[in-house]
Amino acid sequence: MSGSADRLPRLLALVPYLMSHPGAQVGEVAEVFGLTEKQLIDDLQLVWMCGLPGHTPGDLIDVSWDGGEILIDNADTIARPLRLGIDEASALLVALRMLAATPELAELPGDALPRVVAKLERAAGEGAAAVSSQVAVDVDAAPDALPRVREGLTRKRRLSLRYYVPGRDEVTPREVDPMRLVVADGRTYLECWCYRAEAMRLFRLDRMLGVEVLDEPADPPAEAEPIDVAQGVFRPSPTDELVELEVTAAGRWVAEYYPCEQVAELGEGRLRIALRARDDDWILKLALRLGDTGRVVSPPGTAERVREEAERALGLYAHRP
């Protein structure tokens, strides 16, 4: 958090915190705000130059950190903590409701999350509560998939899946050792060791057409490690084909939504994007979805297939009565 866009809200939160924690230690405050001690001292030096118009010593905030103890004075004008706006509070309330609906938390005892939601609604006011209450949060799952997956996790048993792969429009049988349920990009996934792929995989629950709990114990191999979904579920392999796209301003979302190896500005909002495609069907669907807002540049064979498929689709419309 070093940019000015991040620094201003941090400073506005830092001053009230220091006012309510007189004598706090530099190291402790740095840890609270996720900063290094040097970053915190840089912030304090900036705070020292802030205050009311006039810029005389009596107008500026007085802050010192001699001996590692932070003392602040003459900051009453911004001592009040920041309040969440309606948009911020609504987004937080929706996120909390989604968290409460996740499979791993839905059956936990206690009412900690509902109490947090209730307190936030009271603090945020009627506007945020009204907006967030209109948003329904559902965790997608096939009707019987979730309880059977949970049973496999609880009993530590191998699962047999019938799994729909939309990229190939086919149903594949899988035997997996379940490890945990995760929520990413608004979807619920089973993280597991897949014996068909001989690798870790994430399977969406709402694409499971059948789940059977087997008698065989789940025993993932030593190399089975949790998948980091912080950057999204789609994780291209270095062996996947490299595809280049050119998109207009309306197609720039591709660079934000998918991991890209290269993004170059072409002017007038256009981009040239290089990304890895797991198979031809996937890039075909993406290209058709883009329509006239993007085109495949390379490889030539993929570009030709997209063109042929687009012409075929348009031909179907031409023959409609």
UniProtKB/TrEMBL annotation:
PROSITE patterns: WYL
WYL domain ranges (all copies): 145-213
Domain PafC HTH: 6-122
Positions of the WCX domain: 242-314
InterPro entries, per the entry: CBASS_pafABC_assoc_protein (IPR051534), PafC-like (IPR028349), PafC_HTH (IPR043839), WCX_dom (IPR057727), WYL_dom (IPR026881)
Entry-linked Pfam families: HTH_PafC, WCX, WYL
Recorded coiled-coil stretches: none
Stated name of the protein: WYL domain-containing protein
